[in-house]
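dumping the sequnces here before i forget
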Amino acid sequence: MDIVSQLQRQFIDYSASLHHEGFVDDQFTQLQKLQDENSPDFVVEVASLFFEDCEKLINNMARALEQQQGVDFKQVDASVHQLKGSSSSIGAVRVKNVCISFRSFCEAQNREGCLRCLQQVTHEYSLLKNKLQTLFRLEQQLLAAGGSIK
Amino acid sequence: MVESGFSSPRHDAFPAGLRVLVVDDDPTWLKILEKMLKKCSYEVTTCGLARDALNLLRERKDGYDIVISDVNMPDMDGFKLLEHVGLEMDLPVIMMSVDGETSRVMKGVQHGACDYLLKPIRMKELRNIWQHVFRKKIHEVRDIESLEGNEGLQMTRSGSDLVDDGHLLSGEDMNSARKRKDAENKHDDRDLSDPSSTKKARVVWTVDLHQKFVKAVNQIGFDKVGPKKILDLMNVPWLTRENVASHLQNVDLNHEGDKKGITSAPVAEPKGALSIDIPDPHKAQSSQISFDHSLGSVDSGLKFALFNSTNQTRYSWSEIPEIQFKQECEPLQLENGFSQLPLPGSQHQVQTEYLQPAVSISSGPSITEKEVSSRPLYDEYRSNHVKHLSPTEAVDLFPVPSRNQTLNNQVFNPISATTSSMKNQGISLNDLEFAQRNLNGGVGVPIASLSEDLQFCWLQGECYAMNIGLQDFECIEYNDPAPIAEIPFLLYDAPRFDHEHLFDPTEYAAIDQGLFA
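..and the predicted 3d for all of it:
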């Protein structure tokens, strides 16, 4: 196999695995479809926005949960809700799922539960970020070699 | 973050060019939605804050066709934004959320959302949002139709045109006045292409307001009404004399009781384009109007509705596929047609001419003792839809070749009343087709019943698509068998925007004074 085909194969396989492992869902595929000549880096850009947003929200949650005087669960919940919405934008399934349980803990005003969820969310977010960055790298290599992802 | 994407809303391919305002505090979604909407060939403006969105909407009132907003936003509840938009701009609003709980969705609908989308949103969902814009337009027109006694008047005055004095213009004057108007209209036409072209303030004649008006008129007495007197009696501080004057034109005082004479107006108006196809005058029949002389007087009840959308630019994006509007009306056509109107019997000198602007309005004001019971009113629909005219409200008397034209109508019949009373008498149309043809969607109004009810309603609207060339409307009064004294009768209150308007406000004012001195 020549290098382009190889890279292509790699890219496709990796992409598939992300889906299989539940890191991303069909929404991610939709984003890839939206990418075109007018916005060749669309997916990367969207992902970057997502990462930024994620980090900001996770920090908010951490701060709110750290409050010794009393946790403002409403605030935490608001951030979780936002994260949930954000994750749905790129199809970050695992992150979204954590958010769902996170919200129940918020409603129950369960600080412990919330903290656990926060940990999980942070973990899932990092995993996803790594995976996507790898995917993007593969894509770059493929394009550089003259191939395309379509 | 706000990105601007203003541009003219007109595109050839409907619904391409739909101007969408997206409001979402999530930057990721904002980017994705923008991309998706652009792929649908819509024009997108994005906003990260509800406040910014409202500002944008207020700045360019007619700059958008639809708003899509997330439910959760930091600075303002999405529902609140929804309310504001609904109240202030009356645009369709779609809500979005990752939360699909029924209660939330219901809340959205209660607050007036025309749709509620769940995130993640797919492109196919966005592709169809134009339906909401279209639907709203249709409903708006229908609502207007069903409003009896309510009027939305487009009060536009082209400054200098409004002549508020008692003289009646001679034919000569009318011609020149009309020419002036034409020129202005043409100018306006061009302006119209600008989405933000002027929207004049509109007085909405609510039932209450109208009741006050009626009371005042009754108090003063039909024969003595005049806008100033009415205004004084009504005691509505913000109302102007001009408002009352045009309302007076539109109202058939004889039928105050049944509110037939009043049609409400504003209809979404395709921007810059309203064209009414006036049937070829030589298509004869349609142009025949015969007068019922049973009492030797003509019923002034031709009512036709001229709807003009005041929201001129609101639905400026009007590329509704089937509806084609031509920008220019051709007054000439009508004129010719009218000239063919048979004079109803010899007793009445109904001069079809009067439909022609060029007609010389002979002899000045001999309206002295005559009263014109109702001014020809006509409503014109500028809506894009074929609207059926409710029988009591309007009758399309002019066959407008329906080229999907929603212009149903009109033509007027100036009719005057007998001296003693303002009665409406039926005008029987020779050509049944006449009325029927234009009743799109068919409210078939049997001619017979029309006779009684025919009222001329003429609503001033922004657009007088009616190409009737009725700039100068001559109303000829009948007074029993005696020859009619010609009364130059000009009705119109023409807001002008984009179409050559057929009415010259000056003339109108003249009549006003002349008739109701």
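The CA atoms of residues 171 and 362 of chain B lie 6 Å apart.
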